[in-house]
Amino acid sequence: xxxxxxxILQAASxxxxxxxxxRRALPLEERxxxxxxxxxxxxxxxxxxxxxxxxxxxxxxxxxxxxxxGGVEHRDSMGFRDRLGPGDAxxxxxxxxxxxxxxxxxxxxxxxxxxxxxxxxxxxxxxxxSLPAAEIPELAxxxxxxxxxxxTVDGVQGPMALSGGAVFARLRLEAGAAxxxxxxxxxxxxxxxxxGQARVGGTVLPTGALGLLSGxxxxxxxAEGTEAVEVALLGGGxxxxxxxxxxxxxxxxxxxxxxxxxxxxxxxxxRLEGVPF
Length: 277
Fold this sequence. Notes:
The chain is mainly beta. The chain is built from one helix and 26 strands. The chain has one domain (5-265): Jelly Rolls (Sandwich), CATH 2.60.120.10. It has one helix spanning 254-265, and strands at residues 5-10, 12-16, 20-26, 37-45, 56-58, 61-69, 72-76, 81-84, 89-93, 98-104, 108-116, 127-131, 138-141, 144-150, 152-153, 156-157, 167-173, 178-182, 188-195, 197-200, 203-205, 209-213, 218-224, 229-236, 244-246, 249-251. Strands 1-22-19-24-17-14-13 form a seven-stranded antiparallel β-sheet, with no helix packed on it. The protein has a seven-stranded antiparallel β-sheet with strand order 2-3-4-11-6-9-12, with no helix packed on it.
């Protein structure tokens, strides 16, 4: 059965100043989560101006960075340093809390995503994993390329081991091309349009739109118009536990949120260039 678009959410435009365009598709007033994903930021900038380039904390989530274009240098309070280029991905299981910073090496186009950890993993020890583009499966077909980062799409398992059965794939279609993806019938899924106009299950979605999908085993995507289209397929199992935000912390109880704030101020999440003071 083919999935249909049941609701369209337009990402909020948070910055659009000629150099940087930052859109946020989650959380929105209308919706907090898509599967285990609770945060979807889509950014593009031309200069080396950064988002999250100053040291800052996270707790209770997995933080995923995925680059479509450009480069960035990562460093964190666990001692990891890394560089990402086009098609590379990384994720931090922040757990009980850590600090990181991402310094652009050029202009960039990419996604930052947060997965809410289930209650039993909210306080795990932090860890870091990076995946070069060469390790992310690519499935080419006429006029299309599919990259499976996490979860299973078209029978291929992505290498990023995210929580909550998370699914994350990127599909690029040349102008006029079409592709039907095979997915798990039960998981909660949506399609976010990174570029161009995509017709998904008969509904046209513009750039910056998040289309929520019905159940089914197939997702049909068509590139509308005269330009190439790129979309991200996102979702997974329904988010577990309550989703309580306090800036960069996402916990399931008020007590855990309060503890995360105390741990950060006390330096128990580590230090990076003197933060916290």
